[in-house]
C-alpha cells in the first residue's frame, strides 16, 4: 500500500523519540494521511474498508507514539495526543466535498448526468454498496439535503471535520 511506503520514508521523523508528538502529528496529517486517502472521494467504501483504514491509522499512530496494545492506552487518547481526527470522518468529508462539486456543475455536464441516471439494481441478496448510497447515508447523518450543496460556503462549513486544536 502506498500509505505504508510513505510511512517508511518518514520513519526517521515519526519514530524519533526526541521529536515532539505535535510535530509527528503534523507530519502524519500533511504527508501520510493524504496518501492513505488519495481518491477516497470516489470510493464506494464499505465498513470493512473503513475498518482497515482505521486499523492502519492506529498502527501508525501507536508506532509513532511508542505505545503498544499491551500498554492498554485507548485509541481516542493516542489520536488526541497527536491531534488527529478519525480517518473515517475525513473520508466522509472528502466524499461530501466531491458531491458538492458535482452538484454545482452545469446540468449538461457528463458526471452530473451519470449521477442523475444512477438507479438501484434489483436482484437477489443485499444491494451493492455504491458511492451514491454512501453519500446519502453521510448526508442523512449530518442532516444535509441536496439543495444544501448549492450553497458552497455553508456546505463546506457543515461537512468540515477539523482536526482537534
Topology:
Blueprint: H1 2-9, H2 11-14, H3 21-36, H4 47-65, H5 75-82, H6 87-103, H7 110-117, H8 131-142, H9 152-159
Helix pairs in contact: 1-3, 3-4, 4-5, 6-8, 6-9
Feature tags:
(apollo) hypothetical protein, about 160 residues, mainly alpha, elongated, 9 helices
Provide a descriptive summary of the structure in words:
The chain is mostly helical and 165 residues long. The chain has one domain. 61% of the residues lie in helices and 0% in strands. It has helices spanning 2-9, 11-14, 21-36, 47-65, 75-82, 87-103, 110-117, 131-142, 152-159. Helix 1 (2-9) runs antiparallel to helix 3 (21-36) and helix 6 packs antiparallel against helix 9 (152-159). The mean pLDDT is 88.
Briefly characterize the structure.
With 165 residues, the protein is an all-alpha fold.
Overall tally of structural domains: 1
Coarse morphology: elongated
Unreliable runs: none
Average pLDDT number: 88
Largest sheet composition = none
Secondary-structure element sequence? HHHHHHHHH
Strand % is under 5%
Tell me the number of helical segments per DSSP (H or I, 4 or more residues long): 9
Protein name: (apollo) hypothetical protein
Amino acid at each position: 500500500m502506498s500509505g505504508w511506503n510513505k510511512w517508511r520514508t518518514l520513519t526517521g521523523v515519526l519514530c524519533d523519540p526526541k521529536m515532539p508528538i505535535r510535530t509527528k502529528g503534523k507530519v502524519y496529517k500533511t504527508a501520510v494521511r493524504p496518501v492513505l486517502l488519495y481518491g477516497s472521494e470516489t470510493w464506494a467504501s464499505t465498513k470493512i474498508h473503513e475498518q482497515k483504514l482505521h486499523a492502519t491509522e492506529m498502527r501508525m499512530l501507536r508506532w509513532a507514539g511508542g505505545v503498544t496494545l499491551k500498554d492498554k492506552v485507548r485509541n481516542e487518547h493516542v489520536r488526541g495526543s497527536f491531534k488527529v481526527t478519525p480517518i473515517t470522518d475525513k473520508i466522509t468529508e472528502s466524499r461530501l466535498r466531491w458531491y458538492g462539486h458535482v452538484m454545482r456543475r452545469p446540468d449538461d455536464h457528463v458526471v452530473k448526468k451519470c449521477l442523475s441516471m444512477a438507479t438501484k439494481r434489483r436482484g437477489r441478496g443485499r444491494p451493492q454498496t455504491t458511492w451514491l448510497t454512501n453519500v446519502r447515508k453521510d448526508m442523512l447523518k449530518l442532516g444535509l439535503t441536496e439543495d444544501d450543496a448549492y450553497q458552497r460556503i455553508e456546505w463546506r462549513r457543515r461537512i468540515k471535520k477539523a482536526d482537534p486544536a
